[in-house]
Predict the 3D structure of the following.
Amino acid sequence: MTRRVRLIVLAVGGTGLAALLVAACFCLPGFGGDRHPYGDRVVRASLARHTANTIASVNFDQRSFDTLGEMSILFASVLGTVVLLRQTRDEHRAEPEPEEVALPVRRYALVVLPVAVLTGLYVIAHGQLSPGGGFQGGVVVATALHLLYLGADYRALERIRPVGTYEAGDALAASAYLVLGLAGAVAGTAVLANFLPYGTFNTLSSGGTVPLLNAAIGMEGACAVVVLLARFPDQAVEIEKGDGR
Amino acid sequence: MHHLLPVLVAVPLLGATVLVACGQRLPRVVAETLGCAFAAGTAGLAIVLLLNASPPLTEWVGGWTPVGGESVGIVLVGVGPGLGMAAVASLLTVAALAYSWHYFDDAPRRHAGSFPALMLLFQGGMCGFAIAGDLFDAFVFFELMSVVAYALTGHRVEEAKAVQGALSFGVLNSLGAYAVLMGIGLLYARTGELTLVKIGQGLDRHGGPDALTLTAFALVLTGLLVKAAAVPFHFWLPDAHAVAPTPVCMLLSGVMVELGAYGVWRIYRTVFSGLAVIPASDLERALVVLSVLTAVVGAVMCWYQRHVKRLLAYSTVAHMGLFLIGIGSLSPEADDGVALYILGHAGVKTALFACTGVLLDRYGSVDEHALHGRARRLRGVAVLYVVSTLSLAGLPPFGIGLGKAVLEESVGGPLTVLFVAVSAVTAGAVLRVATRVFFGLGTQPGDGSSYETTGIREEPETRHRLSRVPDTMTAVPAVLLVASLAVGAVPGFAAAVGHAMSGGAAPSLHWTRGRLLLGLTSTLLALGLATLAVTRSKPLGEPSWMAPLRRLQSGHIGDYVAWMLVGTTLLAARALPGILNG
Amino acid sequence: MSVLPYLVAAWVFLVGCYGLATSRNLIHAVGCLAVCQSATYVLLLAVGYRDGGTAPVFSDLKPGSRPVVDPVVQALALTDVVVGATVTAVLLALVLQISKRHGTVDPDELSELRG
């Protein structure tokens, strides 16, 4: 289709969809309303299981099966990206060049790196207590490692980031989640049942299986993001066209 | 037994993680064996669950059984149709893995397990979607199977076509999924629930249908119909199926697209079918127009293709149209017919893709014109191909024939004519390919339209062009074909399918004289069309009105998105009158 | 005013669709898809809001002392974010390969699949 025809088709479809969405908005309950039956039940269930962060309770206890799917999506997309961005037959791998980094940048990155990693780990560990959790903390840890790319160079990053190990870590964390889920069926009543003692409210060990599942997800998230982030610069820095002979 | 429902999802996912965790050290044979073992185990589990699915199995994951009728957990529902889809998906995964045995050359370095692992994730996604009883959970597993499918479709990254087709597939399906999510948001706002049954009850309680239910209905259906490749949401399908590796095509055409139709059936039944929500006549009105269009466009485009995989992809579009007509008519007989039809189609279509894969790997081409007469020596494949084609047309006693005849009788009237015509045209097109490629009949056709995608100069998917066809690559389509024959021919199987669909007895699911006649008619018509096409190319040559239709399939993401919005509007507009009057 | 947040969600979704349909760069198109997805976050979070509500985290909040917003939609939005990020990664990987194989990321210039 020409651009013009496409715009006409788009105008027709877009107008229809816009009318639908706007009409639907006016039928929605008013913003800020008080009726949240599912939400209220969730809060009660979370408190009953000694999990201070209700969202962690939803993600890792009440609707932990969703998180199983979500974790699998993350795992699948890492695997998919690894497959899609592989070195093909007509490409070869070049050594990355060492790069000069401005001194202030280098100092800043190296100072911030441990702080950022520690922050990420804190966010993971306190997932069931305070805002945050496995996914969020995992992303912080993974991106923190990449400060080394800014502070030193690509080769330094590659030394602390053996991608193969992180891939295996990703898979192990994902299987840990699955095994914990299946353990629920063996030790408890059903798959992904919360079979551990709930502990004291508002402590690190509260919530039964929630902190364990949260930790598995934290590890998976961190490893997954490291591998994902590795694949893209890998294409830009190392993989080149031609077979290199 | 119901405790095993989540295990159905967990087993393939666990298999995938094991394959990736050990993938760097595993030799390829071990990785592939493990992949097959996990897939087969899941298939076994799905069948065991299916046999125990009456009365329906319900499992609250994590043990969140409802207290006082209310729960905070996710429910999985094991009923005949859902577990049936899970079983088909699992069996086809096993078939595809067996077919690809020693097949892909390009397992990425140190990642021998990556292809089987992706297939297992795909299987897990499909099983999870099939048994989901919670709308958001269905969305999550819908996305899981989509993401894996994008990566699998683009697997042959050296091919310019493959990456383009995979991107169109990815963008369209993701946009569809986000439309579903908008719909989920609206439904959650109205009802405050996520379990399918509870949402349905909540909508009923609220009273008459209004703009919100209509919009949610249109948005949720949009996502599912994108997956089900209904016109005008179908554009991604030929692009993706033409480029995906053969074993992946088998799964995409054989079951993933059908899962979209299953989703429409299930979500309409449980969420929108209440008296006060979207009346059945509205669904019928909305679906029947789109599905008739789908069937016709699919059949016409199928006939005028020379790229064999694209041709098969369009035939899938056409058959999806027929399934959706059945689903839209909302009668128990039509449901039984669709179930049998989908079962038979899964076997036959995968067999056809598998045979086409043999052509690709043997001759480096999937172009009908370029392959003219070149495959004379592949006698076994030729037999498989022709038999598959005839059963695609509805030849008794194959499963497709029975399902289609049951469906034709239940829809009745002019739609019966459409069914016969569409199946004759699509099967005729495939038969035309078979006669030209395997028997070299007729003259080699000229170059045809310049706008068309040809299948010349495709890279084989194996490391080298095959000099002899591996046994697995012919055994798999043969087994699938026998299975599809069994669906229609084994006495009592059809009745068992009917029983699984409705939970009650389905006495009418067997061959009758009328049904035999319907099947034979479309088979003979297909034979006639193919003969005509091969002997006289003139009368069935490409007419001038095909050019604009071809141009719609432009490979341009922007066009596809624009059409998708039109489709959503059309769905809502067709359902609107009932709501205004209701 | 009580429909404004919902209208924002609708607007964001439509703008994303417009961008996707008229895009001249596939990277931009993938970005537009992410915009469409952001609409779903806005809608979900708007649906779950409660007047005067705070975060449903009880480590420093006495249960029942204040209204809290609906935790379900927040969990859904979190899942949604992860899904969106990963889909974007896979699609960007495909775009990268397209630019290698086709030498362009302009959808108007891709002509391998048509008809």
Remarks:
- DSSP finds ten helices and two strands in chain A.
- The beta strands of chain A are 91-93, 239-241.
- The longest strand of chain A covers residues 91-93.
- The longest helix of chain A spans residues 210-237.
